[in-house]
Amino acid sequence: MPVPVPEPARGLRVALLGCGVVGTEVARVLLEQREDLAARVGVPLELAGIAVRDVEQPRDPVVPRELLTRDAAGLVDGADIVVEVMGGLEPARGLLLRAIEGGAAVVTANKALLAADGPTLYKAADTAGVDIYYEAAVAGAIPIVRPVRESLAGDHVRRVLGIVNGTTNYVLDQMATGGLDLAEAVAQAQELGYAEADPTADVDGYDAAAKAAILASLAFHTRVSADDVAREGIRGITSDDVAWAARTGHAVKLLAIAEQTGEGVAVRVHPALVPADHPLAGVKGAFNAIFVEADGAGPLMFYGQGAGGRPTASAVMGDVVSAARHRVLGGKGPQESTYAARPLLPPDAAVTRYQVRLLVADLPGVLAQVAGVVGDHGVSIDTVRQTEPTEGTAELVLTTHAAREASLAATIAAVRTLDPVREITSVLRVEG
Ligand code: NDP
Ligand code: HSE
Fold first, then answer.
1. Is the CB–ligand 1 distance for residue 398 below 6 Å?
2. Residue-range domains of the chain with CATH
3. ACT domain: which residues (predicted)?
4. Is the pLDDT of residue 400 over 90?
């Protein structure tokens, strides 16, 4: 009897939606590393086409012009794997749903979409029995989605804390070390490909909030959307804040913090002072770092490049290979896990320390008056510093012990009404 000859395995058609900072680098890897990828997957990955808005625009020479198309929907139809790196809610959502309903596996870097309406996509993928992967949506090159979603699936995560936005970290770093103002540093981050198409998403904390929501959902098996995250960006941070931070032995960082307590889940994004000897204070440029605290594993730290085309393409391609292996060998990635459905806590329930800077009249008894009001609100002062008075005005810098956000807000409102208080120059949380 003749030995059956196996049919030559067909390559997998990969549709790329978007050819900007990230898409260009994904195309480069697919085209320049095709042999390695074929060896890892078992069949070739064929770049079937690249959907863009403008096919005439000048592009990196690596991009074959004949693969560019404005017909994203047509490209999606018939693809085995659809990679979405176009960003925005629509048409990205519609195209991903179309891909899923057509039986394609999908890979996306679009945290804004996942944090706004991820469950619709997860449910559709579940119904269609296809993979949905999104490692690049959180912290660029750093493998963090897979560790939280899969490696820690047998543990109990308590807290996720970190720097998850490369642009704002770059901006704060440049303000601290390069003497740049916020606008100049944001422009540099845009040139380097770190910033979102609309950089207010970075500066105002929306990007970090989206990532925090994705991580919290995975870590706590509870649906958390971007709207559930208490969010404050870095727009209010001044060069003076950054300089004061250095003077008091801190660095200013935009932190994402997701915690699970007995009462529920709290997720927040805000700038904070981090002690100079804390590992997060040493995270420079567009790098990201994330601490995960789990009951069994203890503390874990993830560090690497959080933005930029090549680092992000690395995460995208890891997902493409995983999805492709499932196509060839069978199997499927994990589904959404929401069984815990923990209550989401209001923002003012958070407990943290604060540094408050205020300008006061340089008169006897003022410090006692301020301290009295702070104490009356149940907030305890840790340290007080006073600068050399100029023209009858002194600057006080109070650092508190841990207090509830709601208590601090009430304290600040009361301190502001005191006669000798001329201005509250800044209120920053102290973390780490
Ligand atoms: P870019 O703005 O550089 O690129 C977007 C691409 O999508 C462009 O090629 C654009 O076409 C195309 N596009 C946009 N809208 C449409 C549309 N309606 N139809 C067809 N094509 C469209 O974005 P990035 O590469 O920076 O980011 C892409 C995604 O990756 C976003 O979701 C972002 O949040 C995410 N991400 C980005 C990171 C980064 O460091 N940049 C890091 C991690 C995630 P055209 O070229 O013709 O304008
Ligand atoms: N704009 C994002 C950042 C890109 O600066 O971190 C990576 O998600």
1. no
2. 12-140+310-329 (3.40.50.720), 145-306 (3.30.360.10), 350-430 (3.30.70.260)
3. 355-432
4. yes
